[in-house]
Each structure stands twice: as C-alpha cells, then as structure tokens.
Amino acid sequence: MNLIKLFFEYVVAIIVQFIITALFIVSSIGLIEVLLKYKIIISIEIIPFVFIGIYIIANAILWKKKDIEQSRLKEKINFVENFDKIQNQWKDLSELKCENMIANDLNDAINAMKYLSKIWLNDSFCKDTIRSEFFEDFSILYQTIDKCHKTVPGYDRRTAKSFITDNIKKAYLEMLSY
After folding, report:
1. What pLDDT score does 175 carry?
2. CA 155/CA 176 separation, integer angstroms
3. Which residues make Cβ contacts (< 8 Å) with residue 13, sequence separation at least 6?
C-alpha cells in the first residue's frame, strides 16, 4: 500500500514539474513581450536565467518535501519492525525464580534484555514506548536475576547475577531515571 502511495506521489511530482516548466516558458514569453511593448530597459538575456533559477528553486523545494515524506515513511516502517522484534523477544519469556532457575529461561530472558538494552542505549527506538511498554517486565527480570546468587544448573560456578552485562545494567539504570 505504501509503495503505491509513493509511486503516485512520484508521478504527481513529475506532473507538477512539467506544469511549472510550462508556466515558466509561457510566462517568460509573455514577460518579454510586455517588456518590449512598454520599452522597459532590461537585458532580455537575463530573463531566461531568472526563470531557470526560479525553476531550480521550485524543484529543490518539491524534492526536499518528497525526501522528508520518504524519511517519515521509513521511520514508521522501522518503528513497526523494531516494535515487532522487541515484542517477539518478550512474548514467550517464563517467570524466573531464583530458587528454581532454569538455564534456558535465563538465557531467553538475558537475550531479550540484551536486545532491549541495545535498542535503548543506541536510541534506535522511541524511549517513551520502551519505558511504557517493556520497562515493568524488564525491571522485574533485572531485579530477580540481580538478587540471585545461586549457581545456574548447567553452568559451572556461574551465578544468575553474573549473566547481567554492563549494557543491561546501564540501560536499566537509565530506564529507571528516565
């Protein structure tokens, strides 16, 4: 749907350029006739350059507007894609309990937290959305893992707390103060 809209916007931009060009040509011929009729002293060679300048400025404005609209569309697409990726990371997480820590559940939680932390720290997604949609679960997981000093089954002498990376901790503290 968005591609069709972009195509039509592009076609409209080309039509508008054609109309502007035609208007410049017609108006420049009419202006020259008026100047000659009333014997206004002006160099006729300058007039085409004036209209070419106006034409270039008009095209620059049209293309800038098109670039702004395309960047907005890309932002919306990226927002939706990132939001879906984040939700997919978080949708199947199990509740963690320190006394009964399961290695796979811990790994899933840490991976989701790493991904969300990366997005938070790189400002690649709206922080208000992250804070409102994911922080509560992030905070619960972080606090549960951070307080758990028991060895995780399947990992030799590695506690749950040791899985928390510096980026996860940094993102948590930033989210907390946001």
Report:
1. 95
2. 30
3. 62, 63, 66
In this structure, the chain runs to a length of 178
Q: Which residues, listed in sequence order, are joined to residue 16 by a DSSP beta bridge? A: none
Q: What angle (nearest 5°) sits at the alpha carbon of residue 177, between those of residues 171 and 178?
A: 80
Quick one: CA dihedral 53, 57, 62, 66, positive or negative? positive
Q: Using CB atoms within 10 Å of the CB of residue 164, give its burial: 0 to 12 exposed, 13 to 18 middle, 19+ buried.
A: buried
Under 8 Å between Cβ of 30 and 51: no
Per-block mean pLDDT, blocks of 10 residues, the chain (178 long):
70 75 67 65 65 79 82 78 83 87 92 92 85 93 94 88 96 94
Q: Which of 75, 28, 76, 74 is nearest to 51 (CA)?
A: 28
Number of other residues whose CB lies within 10 A of the CB of residue 138: 24
- Range list of β-strands (E), the chain: none
